[in-house]
Amino acid sequence: MEELKAVNDNTVQYIVIRLGEEQYGIDIKYIDNILRMQKITRVPKVAPYLKGVINLRGEVLPVMSIRIKMGLDADVVTKSSRIIVIKMEQQGMIGIIVDEVKEVVTLETERIEKVAYASKDEKDNFIYGIGKYEGGLISLLDLNLVVPENS
């Protein structure tokens, strides 16, 4: 049992999502729920990436397009699209629209390369590291930069 605990201290679980052709990882500790797409009620005079609100168990939950926030093409809703409910300490809960939820992966911390470059490309500023998993690379999202402060 002690040996197992030592291994777990060096790993982080990420949910792998797809946005367009790219795969991103979100630290599972931030994820409250994963919902199928549903009707989003528009809210006037908000930032373009804020798509509106949904009713989640009686709570009004803001929903944002992570694609628009990252400067990608607008969302195309398919049967694979999901709303991931993120729970942040400062900002509370917010839903983000993703093209697809792929899988949950466990990455060892030494298999995560920190990204330490100043990029002019807007979407690269939301990534804090690259995870190496089964021969592929997963860009790891920094939700503190993706999720707006005043949501």
List descriptors:
151 residues, globular, disordered N terminus, mainly beta, 6-stranded mixed beta sheet
Q: What would you note in describing this structure?
A:
It is a single chain. With 151 residues, the protein is mainly beta. It is built from three helices and eleven strands. The chain has helices at 2-9, 66-69, 143-146; strands spanning 11-19, 22-27, 31-36, 50-56, 59-65, 82-88, 92-98, 100-108, 112-114, 127-133, 136-141. Strands 8-1-2-11-10-9 form a six-stranded mixed beta sheet. The longest helix is centred in the first third of the chain and has 8 residues, at 2-9. The chain is globular and about 45 Å long. It starts with a helix and ends in a 5-residue tail after the last helix.
Structural class: mainly beta
Spell out the helices and strands N to C. HEEEEEHEEEEEEH
State the helical fraction: 10-25%
Shape: globular
Number of strands: 11
Distance between the termini: 42 Å
- Strands in their spatial order, largest beta sheet: 8-1-2-11-10-9
Biggest sheet architecture: 6 strands, mixed
